[in-house]
Amino acid sequence: MQIITFMNCQKMILVTGACGQIGTELVKALRDKHGNQNVIATDIRDVTDTSDGPYFRLDVLDRGELQKLVSELNITHIYHLAAVLSANGEKNPIGAWDLNMQSLLNVLEVARIENLQQVFWPSSIAVFGPESPKELCGQYALTEPTTVYGISKAAGEHWCRYYHQQYGLDVRSLRYPGLISHSAQAGGGTTDYAVDIFHQAVNKGSYACYLKDDTRLPMLYMPDAVRATLELMDAPAEQLTIRSSYNLAGISFTPEQLAIGINAHLPDFTISYQPDKRQAIADSWPASIDDKQAAKDWGWAPAYDLQDMIADMLLHLDTHAHENFA
Ligand code: SER
């Protein structure tokens, strides 16, 4: 009897997009917390090294395949991270819409049918547009996105709230700012420069930035982003007042400020500016975010400021370089 009770309480977590920038870190954190065998990593890629825990190749657009995995593995929670980001989305708008929307609908439907306990889905600052306030953009500010990525995130937020209201599904979401991490590269976003710059600074000593020097954007260091995700998912349901997606803030800075911060560690590092199409996307987003609802509802507070983040990034990239060299 005791064993049955234990099994019923056991969380079985499935993560889509597990090989991506967030997935790489979140899967590690979830495995540390819930045990390696209880966190199933999935992605569209073939992965051969599964020594850290179970991995399945999954195209999340295949709802039948998703439902089969969820049912056979007794999944209780899904973290649905697979998505096309802002810059890549503009290269193939309909493809990005199809992937971002249909995959979310598949996850929500499977979660409803299979009675899952919780779903996490990331939204983004990209839901905001040129009409939204530039500074301290609020939770309920106008969302008129200009990118297909932002449109898909804004629509996705409505779907999350709909599934919560209509079916009682416990789906939770964060509007991530640009995420900065050392383990995995960002891919196809507008904020990727803030990751690329570190790799180029360490490997080449210079960086050609595709945004103008004074383009201030909201960013968040990955350890904070992972902690925010785990804290939101652990928060008592009755404390949550937002069922679309929570504003989340960390650090706002410009490429020039980031370069100056890197220069303090690497005095020979140089940056140049060659704005491309991503500049228009960046210009359409707020420069800073007001996340006081997240602070109020579930106690959110970021830990890393700009200097801490830079120091930690360089420390880890230096360690990786030595590991690769050894
Ligand atoms: N980092 C994302 C992008 O640049 C924004 O959420 O597309």
Task: Explain what you see.
With 326 residues, the chain is of the alpha/beta class. It has helices at 2-9, 21-34, 63-72, 86-91, 93-113, 148-167, 193-203, 222-234, 255-263, 278-283, 292-298, 306-325; strands spanning 13-16, 39-43, 55-57, 77-80, 118-124, 171-176, 178-180, 206-209, 217-221, 246-247, 251-253, 270-273. It has a seven-stranded parallel β-sheet, with helices on both faces. The chain has a three-stranded mixed β-sheet with strand order 7-9-11. β1 (13-16), α2 and β2 form a beta-alpha-beta unit. α3 (63-72) packs parallel to α5 and α7 (193-203) runs parallel beside α9 (255-263). It is globular, with a radius of gyration of 20 Å. The chain starts with a helix and ends with a helix. The structure holds serine. Residues 85-86, 124-126, 149, 176, 178, 189-191 line the site of serine (SER). Serine (SER) is lined by residues 85-86, 124-126, 149, 176, 178, 189-191.
